Amino acid sequence: MKTWGLRTVFWVLFAVFMAWDYVASPPVDLRRELAPFAAGSGHATQGGHCSMPD
């Protein structure tokens, strides 16, 4: 297969995967997402062994 053929197969498979992922995944609730500039601020998360107080 030529290089352009491999590229075409890759992009077709990639597009099919992205379409499947979009259909199969639940919608993202942007109001519940953490703002990137606020990451690391506030209270520690609960439940993990590394977030337990000393």
Describe it.
The chain has 54 residues and is an all-alpha fold. Helices cover 41% and strands 0% of the residues. The chain is built from 1 helix and no strands. The longest helix is centred in the first third of the chain and has 22 residues, at 3-24. It is elongated. The model has no long low-confidence stretch (mean pLDDT 77).
Mean pLDDT: 77
Described by the principal axes of the CA atoms, the overall outline is: elongated
Quote the beta fraction: under 5%
Kindly state the number of beta strands. Answer: 0
Q: Structural class, judged by helices and strands?
A: mainly alpha
Number of helices: 1
Summarize the helices and strands and which ones pair or pack:
Elements: H1 3-24
